[in-house]
Amino acid sequence: MELFYFLLFGALSAVVAALELSKRNKDRISTSSAFTAFKNNYLLIYSLMMAGDWLQGPYVYYLYSTYGFSKGDIGQLFIAGFGSSMLFGTIVGSLADKQGRKRACVTYCITYILSCFTKHFPDYKVLMLGRVLGGIATSLLFSAFESWLVAEHNKRGFEQQWLSLTFSKAIFLGNGLVAIVSGLLGNLLVDTLAFGPVAPFDAAACILAIGMAIILATWSENYGDSSDNKNLLTQFQGAAIAIASDEKIALLGAIQSLFEGSMYTFVFLWTPALSPNDEEIPHGFIFATFMLASMLGSSIASRLMASSAPRVESYMQIVFAVSAASLLCPIVTSFLIAPSNVKGGGISFSGYFQIFGFCTFEACVGIFWPSIMKMRSQYIPEEARSTIMNFFRIPLNIFVCIVLYNVNAFPITIMFGMCSIFLGTAAVLQRRLFVITDGHKSKSQEWEPMERDTEAEPLND
Fold first, then answer.
1. Are 40 and 169 in contact (CB under 8 A)?
2. Which of 2, 134, 406, 451 is deepest in the core (most CB within 10 A)?
3. From CA 85, how far away is CA 397, in angstroms rounded?
4. Mean pLDDT of the 390-399 span
5. CB neighbours of 292 closer than 8 A, spacing ≥ 6?
6. For residue 309, what are the CA distances in angstroms to 304, 315, 320, 443?
7. Average pLDDT over residues 185-206
8. Which are the contacts of 144, defined by CB distance < 8 A and separation ≥ 6?
9. Of 13, 2, 3, which Cα lies nearest the Cα of 288?
10. What is each CA distance from 35 to 42, 166, 302, in whole angstroms?
11. Angle 351-353-357 (CA atoms, 0-180°, nearest 5)?
């Protein structure tokens, strides 16, 4: 493997370590011992849940190909996963609000374990069932756990600012360190120990089972709106009304869909972008480098959210603009650097340039996750949190399904350009959200002294 990869990985590791070790007291939030225990319990469970997800990711396509399925068949399996998340996600989100978030988290574990079990069968229908179960599990992973955390945090009376600490640490660990370790563990099981491509799925099932046991033993139940007179249709209507009537919620949903849609598209595009002529690239090591860049972003986010200024709504404008610029790298290199027609070999010069751009995008992803979590905790009503969060995923899943279906219909530069436009649009919408929230904050500050002056003035007869 080329020295470049080790140098880039080492440089990112050094920067992340320096940021974490150099945190001063003003960068840290003073908390209570009760909150620390609560936070550590959640971080342990969230890390186990994400490990169960990350272990599977790098080997899904590879497993299907070893079973002899064509690229078209595999594409349909992936579409089934995103499609089921779109169709069933809102339903399971509403059930989580009504029946309990702890139950929804346990359901995630059971559903994903069953999905892992289907990977043992080279039957297309069984694998399709596994993808549907996996899509449902994904919807629960990205809604039920966060909903439980926010509700439980508020129920226990912890300060609102402490929530951002849990979010940033969850992303630093779950989407960074755990992703890297999971990739290395999967490589150990499949390549070093030669247990076969199903081994990571079995390991994921075991980890999910451990996490489920801890949830059952340590978590209490909480609900959104558990009223008996509210059926699923009423919950859907309430969530839709909340989105339509509150511009902040609508903007947040559009921003999330645009960014995550671009992010999931990037997941499918980075490999052909770096190896257009079948160059030999270390996929696992590059993936680990991307996750390290994401850790860098989450470390930056924790510092930003630990202070009162700048506000999340403010700095996320810059994050979206930088992410839009970073995904223009493949387009820029196609104009500035003559493409090579040599098949095979190592990564090209344009590939080196693109890796830097992609690492920048992953750092933006690391900032995005804890920041969007904090904004959701501020603006989404508690009684329908899971339902509304899964409403946000409907346009996201439609977008990803369309991209997967047409991935060979457009040049890769067009696809990256489309993602960049979406991210630029997210930056514009984030600006609008900042203006709205800043205006509301200014008005509330203006009213406070007016009320005090009114109280101080004697009443005239």
1. no
2. 134
3. 7
4. 79
5. 9, 12, 13, 16, 176, 180
6. 8, 9, 18, 19
7. 89
8. 92, 93, 96, 101, 104, 105, 107, 108, 386
9. 13
10. 11, 10, 17
11. 110
Question: Is residue 458 scored above 50 in pLDDT?
Answer: no
Q: What is the average pLDDT across 213-241?
A: 77
pLDDT digits (tens, 9 = 90+) for 279-300: 777 776 787 888 899 999 988 9
The pLDDT tens digits of the residues spanning 247-278 come to 999 999 899 989 988 998 888 788 788 888 77
pLDDT at res. 230: 58
* C-alpha neighbours within 13 Å on the C-beta side of residue 120: 9
Contacts of 169 (CB under 8 A, 6+ apart): 39, 43, 302
Contacts of 400 (CB under 8 A, 6+ apart): 82, 261, 264, 265
Residue 234: other Cβ atoms inside 10 A: 14
Reading the block at residue 79, the tokens are: 């579409």
User: In this structure, what token pair is assigned to residue 451?
Assistant: 């009320």
Short-list 187, 165, 209, CA closest to 49: 209
pTM over 0.85: no
For residue 398, the one-letter residue type is I
Question: Which of 76-80, 224-228, 232-236, 425-429 is predicted with the least confidence, judged by mean pLDDT?
Answer: 224-228
Which region among 154-163, 396-405, 434-443 has the lowest average model confidence (pLDDT)? 434-443
Report d(CA 7, CA 15) in Å as an integer: 12
SS3 per-residue string spanning the chain: CCHHHHHHHHHHHHHHHHHHHCCCHHHCCCCCHHHHHHHHHHHHHHHHHHHHHHCCHHHHHHHHHHCCCCHHHHHHHHHHHHHHHHHHHHHHHHHHHHHCHHHHHHHHHHHHHHHHHHCCCCCHHHHHHHHHHHHHHHHHHCCHHHHHHHHHHHHCCCCHHHHHHHHHHHHHHHHHHHHHHHHHHHHHHHHHCCCCCCHHHHHHHHHHHHHHHHHHHHCCCCCCCCCCCCCHHHHHHHHHHHHHHCHHHHHHHHHHHHHHHHHHHHHHHHHHHHCCCCCCCCHHHHHHHHHHHHHHHHHHHHHHHHCCCCCHHHHHHHHHHHHHHHCCHHHHHHHHCCCCCCCCCCCCHHHHHHHHHHHHHHHHHHHHHHHHHHHHHHHCCHHHHHHHHHHHHHHHHHHHHHHHHCCCCCCHHHHHHHHHHHHHHHHHHHHHHHHHHHHHHHHHHHHHHHHHHHHHCCCCC
